[in-house]
């Protein structure tokens, strides 16, 4: 028995040794001729075509500036990148470059998780003048530059011109012009009413077959929680460090969203939401022609072309209408960011890559591949005329407008987003009255923010 | 201890060491640390600052905490008995010797192999108020009652019953455990009951259920633990909505930890959750003497 067990043990030990010696090895990520270069680990959130576009830019860098300066960028795509970056940073093994989102500038910046980039930017002659103000300002927190943009966005009204023309007579008889999109929220409602089609089923029940306009499903929180901007209001006062959820403009925006389930029925709104697999899929109701107008970003052109090319010439873009007379070119500008997490071992080399991406030619290439506008103040003729979105000029103008807004610069913006999304869900289900819900959220969020400030002060005192 | 026994003990520990080290480093240590973090202000990036019971105090005054707890307990109150009854019922039916028994068993088990994300997408469509399969199937009945189909996922009142209904989709694993238990029931007990004049229903009530009561108890305990940790389905199907009506406890815990970066607060929530699981399983164990029958005892 003893012999048998020793034999089995021996076989297992030899097996383990063989696996160690001859077992699988990771493929070398760095080409043999670049082994002596500084390797920059770049984590990105994107998958699919957007990832491939970034890979092209990384390859270009590795073959040009990288080769010259002996820097090699290794790109890795991953899900839940914000959490993984945070955990890796806390563990002291962060990536050199993290491709995150704009709200993390404040959230991570306030936690001291990011390397300030202002001195590096200065050394590379990167200044505020190079960027559209909305993106440059949103890259800062507490006086520090914590990120530079990769691909940005601005949102606008996408409308189906074909359906407008097919319903020209109806629109005209309602006193509306079928040759132009709505310019005010009131007009948007009127266009929407005319273009909404009801059908009656065999049992005599009335259903909505096509809707004129509908807010995005609440799970795409930033589309719905940014709605007050078009009502001339914001949900956070950065200077006063106060939530402003009881601002009349904010309340009006939420009350406006409430009108859709009241008019169309909760079931219809829910039916449109549950039927959508995601705005970037062929199930999107705008692409299916069951919704005539939608608030979207420039990328939609790519998705339409890919999922429903027959619609390529049917749609157009205009600034989203506003509810305040004289208020024009209002937009919300979220963007992807490139950041250097605290603890990065190759800061100058990492920034070399970030600076490369922010070169006008490189940025325009990347933004065209992602079908987005540029964060830079200057754009080339080629960018405007060969962009896959033929209305890119509208987005460029919107992003440059003084009424272009960034994500709320609040360290607890994520928590506020969750709170506001819950209210939108309740409003769209007609279960929540916007005004008292916003008032209650105001009290809760302000208290949370004050707790955050208290904790921050406590940590600062402890550090001193 | 003799030298031989010591040698054997060391050998045993050496063989156990991968598990022991793994458990120590990846389970025991984090559990102990999370207890400490629950008493700290901790955001992962900065050193934890001790704040005593502040997180627990804040939780008591946190409306969302109470709401998420209510949502979870409501779901447990519906899903737990429904799951146990349905899976036992299905197991009893699958235990009947009929042609195609293996096929029926496979059909019941297959849904539990479907990935949660795929099931969530499928059920989103099934719950669609007008186009969904469920309301379509209910149409004749609804017409008789002059009612329209329920807005399954769109209204707070319906969302938890909908998710509980969906949970029945994956009872396959529990059914398999019941089936194993049912096949262990001695045939002679049924024969004796039959001789005493017991019908099928009486046999089920007086023979089958007492004999498989340890299996029912096992499934009950596992269900209590599992249901209090529900996360993935509401995360994908409803995002906690509408109006936080499906914002489960674990969902809030996840948000607190990884979205709001309040690790201390989330650790306090985790400890309360553990306490809740302990209390409920303790109640189950406490009452088990009255209704669980072990053969040979």
What does this structure look like?
The complex is a heterodimer of chains A (464) and B (297). With 464 residues, chain A is of the alpha/beta class. Chain A folds into two domains: 6-152 and 335-401, Periplasmic binding protein-like II (D-Maltodextrin-Binding Protein, domain 2), CATH 3.40.190; 156-332 and 412-451, D-Maltodextrin-Binding Protein, domain 2 (3-Layer(aba) Sandwich), CATH 3.40.190. Chain A has helices spanning 2-22, 48-63, 65-69, 81-90, 103-110, 118-123, 133-138, 161-166, 168-173, 185-195, 221-225, 248-264, 266-275, 285-288, 300-307, 347-357, 360-369, 381-386, 392-400, 413-428, 434-463, and strands at residues 38-44, 71-77, 97-101, 140-141, 144-145, 148-152, 156-160, 197-200, 206-213, 236-237, 242-243, 291-296, 315-318, 331-332, 335-339, 404-405. A five-stranded mixed sheet of chain A has the order 2-1-3-15-6. In chain A, strand 10 and strand 11 form a beta hairpin. Chain B has a single domain (62-291), classed as MetI-like fold. A two-stranded antiparallel sheet of chain B has the order 1-2. In chain B, strand 1 and strand 2 form a beta hairpin. In chain B, helix 3 (63-94) crosses helix 8 (172-183) and helix 13 runs antiparallel to helix 14. The mean pLDDT of chain B is 91. Classes of the chains: A alpha/beta (464), B mainly alpha (297). The interface between A and B is large, with 44 and 35 residues.
């Amino acid at each position: 028995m003893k012999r048998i067990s020793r034999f089995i043990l021996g076989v297992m030990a030899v097996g383990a040794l063989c696996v160690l010696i001859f077992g699988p090895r990771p493929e070398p990520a760095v080409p043999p001729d670049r082994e002596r270069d500084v390797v920059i680990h770049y984590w990105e959130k994107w998958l699919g075509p957007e990832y491939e576009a970034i890979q092209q830019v990384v390859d270009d860098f590795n073959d040009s500036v990288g080769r010259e300066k002996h820097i090699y960028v290794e790109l890795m795509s991953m899900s839940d990148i914000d959490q993984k970056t945070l955990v890796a940073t806390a563990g002291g093994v962060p990536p050199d470059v993290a491709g995150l989102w704009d709200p993390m500038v404040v959230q991570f910046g306030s936690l001291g998780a990011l390397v300030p980039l202002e001195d590096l930017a200065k050394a590379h002659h990167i200044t505020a003048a190079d960027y559209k103000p909305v993106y440059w300002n949103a890259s800062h927190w507490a006086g520090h530059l914590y990120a530079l943009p990769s691909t940005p966005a601005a949102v606008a009204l996408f409308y189906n011109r074909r359906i407008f023309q097919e319903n020209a007579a109806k629109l005209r008889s309602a006193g509306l012009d079928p040759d132009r999109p709505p310019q005010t929220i009131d007009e948007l409602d009127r266009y929407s009413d005319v273009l909404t089609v009801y059908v009656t089923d065999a049992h005599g029940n009335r259903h909505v077959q096509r809707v004129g306009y509908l807010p995005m499903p609440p799970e795409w929180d930033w589309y719905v929680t940014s709605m007050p901007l078009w009502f001339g209001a914001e949900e956070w006062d950065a200077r006063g460090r106060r939530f402003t959820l009881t601002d009349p403009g904010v309340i009006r925006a939420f009350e406006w969203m409430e009108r859709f389930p009241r008019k169309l029925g909760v079931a219809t709104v829910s039916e449109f939401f549950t039927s959508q697999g995601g705005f970037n899929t062929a199930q999107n109701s705008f692409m299916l022609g069951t919704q005539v107008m939608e608030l979207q970003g420039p990328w939609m052109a790519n998705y339409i072309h890919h999922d429903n090319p027959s619609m390529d010439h049917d749609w157009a873009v205009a600034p989203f209408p506003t509810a305040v007379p004289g208020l024009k070119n209002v937009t919300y500008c979220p963007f992807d960011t490139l950041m250097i997490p605290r603890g990065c071992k190759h800061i100058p080399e990492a920034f070399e890559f970030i600076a490369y991406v922010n070169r006008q030619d490189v940025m325009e290439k990347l933004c065209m591949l992602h079908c987005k506008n540029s964060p830079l103040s200057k754009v080339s003729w080629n960018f405007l005329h060969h962009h896959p979105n033929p209305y890119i000029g509208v987005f460029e103008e919107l992003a440059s407008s003084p009424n272009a807004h960034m994500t709320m610069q609040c360290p607890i913006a994520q928590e506020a987003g969750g709170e506001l999304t819950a209210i939108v869900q309740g409003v769209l289900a007609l279960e929540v009255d916007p005004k008292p819900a916003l008032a209650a959220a105001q009290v809760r969020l302000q208290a949370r923010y004050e707790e955050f400030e208290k904790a921050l002060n406590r940590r600062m005192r402890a550090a001193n | 201890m003799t030298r031989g026994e010591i040698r054997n003990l060391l050998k045993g520990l050496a063989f156990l060491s991968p598990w022991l080290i793994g458990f120590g480093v990846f389970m025991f240590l984090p559990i102990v640390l999370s207890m400490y973090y629950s008493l700290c202000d901790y955001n992962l990036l900065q050193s934890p600052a001790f704040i005593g019971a502040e997180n627990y105090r804040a939780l008591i005054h946190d409306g969302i905490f109470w709401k998420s707890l209510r949502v979870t307990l409501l779901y447990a109150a519906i899903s737990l008995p429904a799951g146990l009854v349905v899976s036992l019922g299905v197991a009893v039916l699958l235990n009947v010797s009929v042609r195609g028994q293996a096929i029926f068993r496979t059909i019941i088990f297959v849904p539990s192999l479907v990935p949660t994300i795929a099931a969530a997408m499928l059920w989103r469509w099934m719950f669609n108020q007008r186009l969904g399969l469920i309301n379509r199937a209910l149409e004749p009945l609804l017409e008789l009652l002059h009612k329209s189909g329920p807005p399954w996922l769109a209204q707070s009142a319906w969302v938890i019953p909908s998710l509980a209904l969906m949970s029945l989709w994956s009872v396959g694993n529990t059914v398999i455990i019941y089936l194993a238990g049912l096949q262990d029931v001695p045939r002679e007990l049924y024969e004796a009951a039959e001789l005493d004049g017991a019908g099928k229903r009486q046999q089920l009530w007086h023979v089958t259920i007492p004999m498989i009561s340890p299996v029912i108890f096992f499934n009950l305990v596992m269900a209590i633990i599992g249901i209090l940790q529900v996360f993935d389905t509401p995360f994908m199907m409803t995002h906690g909505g509408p109006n936080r009506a499906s914002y489960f406890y674990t969902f809030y815990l996840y948000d607190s930890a990884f979205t709001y970066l309040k690790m201390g607060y989330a650790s306090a929530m985790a400890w309360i959750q553990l306490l809740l699981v302990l209390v409920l399983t303790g109640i189950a164990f406490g009452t088990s003497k009255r209704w669980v029958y072990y053969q040979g005892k």
